[in-house]
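Box S1 | Example of a co-folding query
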Amino acid sequence: MKHTESRLLRSVLYVPASQKRVLEKAPKLKADALILDLEDSVSPQAKAEARQLACETLLRVPEDALVRTVRINGLSTDWWSEDITTVFPGQPDGIVVPKVDGVESLKPLDDQLSHMEKSLVCEYRPSIWAMIESPLGVINAHAIASHPRVSCLVMGTSDLIAALGVRAGVDRSNLAMALQQSVLAAKAAGVPILDGVFLDLKDGEGFETQCREGAGLGFAGKTVIHPSQVGPANALFLPSDDEIARARNTLVLWRKAQQRGEEICLVEGVLVERLHARRAAIILKSVGEISDFSTI
Ligand code: COA
Ligand code: MG
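Box S1 (continued) | Returned holo structure for magnesium ion
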């Protein structure tokens, strides 16, 4: 079965991997996930050191604390392969790949990852988070999301806005079709999708408006660039009352099934397995109803 990210991804913080101080702060900011960036926020001269710093950060931050990913340089650059080789020992949960225009472009990366996995004694298989940030990427989003290693799509709205030659702002009616088509593609492939960044750090209200819009469209969360955006994103991408009620019911019935020694049960006529119970527990943890679900 296709692996998809089952943990919460309400706030996903970009962290320039060349900056030691930000790398130290980032894991403590209560973001659901980090993207340690080797691409656009790192100058060509700083790439080599940033790779090392990213790997050290991964090794320092426990994998169950939050979702840890690295954004490598684009697959048409000379940098991406060494990005992977250097950060691989840190075992990131995901490799964020910028500017994915078509599924075929993922092959060299998939091959390199498969090759490196074979040399390991432990089981480790990083997933790919593919960035959709060009008109072609939007058009091909379903094929990209359906690649067996892709577990998440990430909107790259700044590049998309530049490619479309449209204005950036709080109002995104000029991106509506691209956003919705990408959401449809992700949902059809069964993977979550993250909304793009909001760059105006002075406009907290505008940021919240975009979070509400993103949550309403079906995004799992928002990529963010600053600590001040983490709290609002966590609050505004909370699960709905219906989802919470369904999660409660699921967990109660699945625990009863467990007591009977069974691994599956029916909830409102729908088959529930351990992965659904785990997802339900994640939802309840996000609203503070339970504190631990390590036994599920
Ligand atoms: N992750 C973790 N910590 C961050 C952070 C981030 N993305 N952005 C800022 N901080 C920290 C700063 O280090 C600072 O901490 P300190 O006071 O203890 O030193 C604190 O938050 C306040 O930062 P502030 O002074 O308001 O911002 P800044 O001027 O230092 O930085 C940006 C502003 C936009 C340059 C910075 O937030 C940033 O680099 N964001 C990420 C950009 C990025 O990755 N872009 C690529 C994808 S679009
Ligand atoms: Mg980009």
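The pocket of magnesium ion (ligand 2) is lined by residues 40, 98, 133, 156, 158-159 (CB under 6 Å). DSSP finds twelve helices and ten strands in the chain.
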